[in-house]
Specification:
Helices cover 42% and strands 15% of the residues. It contains 2 helices and 2 strands, in the order αββα. The longest helix has 10 residues. The protein starts with a helix and ends with a helix.
């Protein structure tokens, strides 16, 4: 969880780290992001 804290400033999981370094946390937020950004 040290890496999670370094990336997001918190110890909660899950987090998603995008290629550009943006960090998205929380399963609902990650699911919303995935729906809005489908894989090609």
């Amino acid at each position: 969880r040290d890496e999670v804290k370094d990336l997001s400033g918190q110890e909660n999981v899950p987090i998603l780290v995008l290629d550009d370094g943006e960090v998205i946390s929380g399963s609902g937020t990650i699911a919303d992001w995935a729906k809005a950004n489908p894989a090609p």
